[in-house]
Amino acid sequence: MDIKILKEAALKFGTPIYLYDLKIIENQFDRLNKALSVLKNYKIHFAAKSLSNISILKFINKLGAGLDAVSIEEVMIGLKCGFNKNDIIYTPNGVSFEEIKKVFKLGVKINLDSIESIKDFVNEFGNQSITVRINPGIYAGGNNNVSVGHLESKFGITEDRMHELKDMEVKEKIKITGLHIHTGSDITNNNQFKEGIKKIFSIARDFKNIETIDLGGGIKIPYYDNDTSTNLNDYVEEVSKELNKFETKFNKKLKLIFEPGKFLVSDSGFLITQVNYIKSTSTKEFIQLNSGFNHLLRPNLYGSHHEVINLNNPEGRKKEYDVVGYICEKDTFAEKRKIPNTSKGDLICFRNAGAYCFNMASNYNSRPRPAEICFYKEKFHKIRKAEDLNDLLENQIDIFS
Ligand code: LLP
Q1: Could you tell which of 31, 32, 50 is best to mutate to test the pocket of ligand 1, judged by most ligand atoms within 8 Å of the CB?
Q2: Which atom belonging to ligand 1 lies closest to the Cα atom of 219?
Q3: Assuming Cys at both sites, which of 14, 55, 260, 306 could form a disulfide with 350, CB separation 3.0 to 4.6 Å?
Q4: Cα 398 to ligand 1 centre (Å)
Q5: Helix (H, G, I), strand (E, B) or coil at 102
Q6: Atom of ligand 1 nearest to the CA of 142
């Protein structure tokens, strides 16, 4: 996105703000469709957890995507945004059976990830079709927190319990119509993807009612020049290979599902902040911003890299800074980062702030969450108001008044 537009947004709406360029989402959607097109029968389900503003969801729905939802709230928001109930896949983890029942009654597809919840489901609803999430026992993903397909992880049904699932299909007459894996986020190592793909297709051989294979998300995009990324063509080639083998052997066609979050929206988002102070100590210079990990948690939680642009001096001579927030504990966005010479009042913008950024924001330190703005057809649109003090107090109950 043009620096001029980023600056214009800051001048128009103030800072901090989240800004999303819808054209970038559309381009990413087209790019992914192009790469997947050899697979013919597939659908992209956007991972709502990454960015769930209703205007963004409506836009993604219009592009033709389905939704990957993890909570009944994401399901309800998806329905409100126009997603067809058949195009929403609900993949909860550890939620109450009461919630699963409610979502089932909405007619949304249920993807369960434990034998325990499937037993409850069979008891309640009898002979139904469901899909299940497997745990392939693979370590994949950019860091420990986002690696969820290994044997120590709470997600999915591990291979050693697969016989229970097969038994249930025979005895309880439940129909397992699909298998799902999601092993991690930011996966650059294509071997990890390949291992997962091989595993899910090999497990699928034991289930005679399989109609869909859901390969989850995890595609990594580059966060800076020369950063690593998933080789999409390799990935699709591996899927295609395993799919063809399966379809030839069993003489039936499968539908594939993909659930990208970051791939679709990470690049589209920008967090624009302003410098409160440049603070010097004996060893460092800190750029102190009017934001913090309450607004952008990823660097603190995962050590994630977000490119930093000084909108007032984008091409200036670079110096080393620690870019920090105003939260009262360690709150570092970027450590020892070479950034163009920066002054008090400059606008500082973080890239890749589309996925898991606003959606992971909080009110820590009693700070309101910022506004969300989108740039669509050459115009800015406010899609969420900034919170204020009233919002912070709204749901609190003063028992001493
Ligand atoms: N499908 C399922 C079942 C998932 O759990 C996730 C993400 C996705 C799809 C989308 O994955 P993606 O394509 O976005 O990698 N907060 C972390 C990422 C957590 C991902 C959780 N699950 C971060 O900011 O890096």
Answers
A1: 50
A2: 13
A3: 306
A4: 38
A5: helix
A6: 25
Task: Please give the domain boundaries of the chain with CATH numbers for all domains.
Answer: 23-262 (3.20.20.10), 266-391 (2.40.37.10)
pLDDT, tens digit, for every residue of 195-229? 999 999 999 999 999 999 999 999 999 999 999 99
Looking at residue 295, what is its pLDDT?
98
How far does residue 304's CA lie from ligand 1's centre (Å)?
A: 14
φ, ψ of residue 343 to 5 degrees: the values are -125, 160
**Which residues, listed in sequence order, are joined to residue 180 by a DSSP beta bridge?**
133, 214
Phi-psi region of 148 (alpha: psi -120 to 50; beta: other; left: phi over 0): alpha
Query: Which whole number is the average pLDDT over 226-242?
Result: 95
* 354's tokens: 């589309």
The number of beta carbons lying within 10 Å of the beta carbon of residue 254 is: 19
Pocket of ligand 1 (CB under 6 A): 47, 50, 68, 91, 146, 182, 185, 216-219, 259-263, 298, 302, 355-356
Token pair listed for 366: 């009693």
Give the confidence band of 139 by pLDDT, cuts at 50, 70, 90.
Answer: confident
In which residue are the tokens 């102190």 written?
Answer: 288
How far is it, in rounded angstroms, from Cα 254 to Cα 250?
A: 10
Tokens of 261: 């979050």
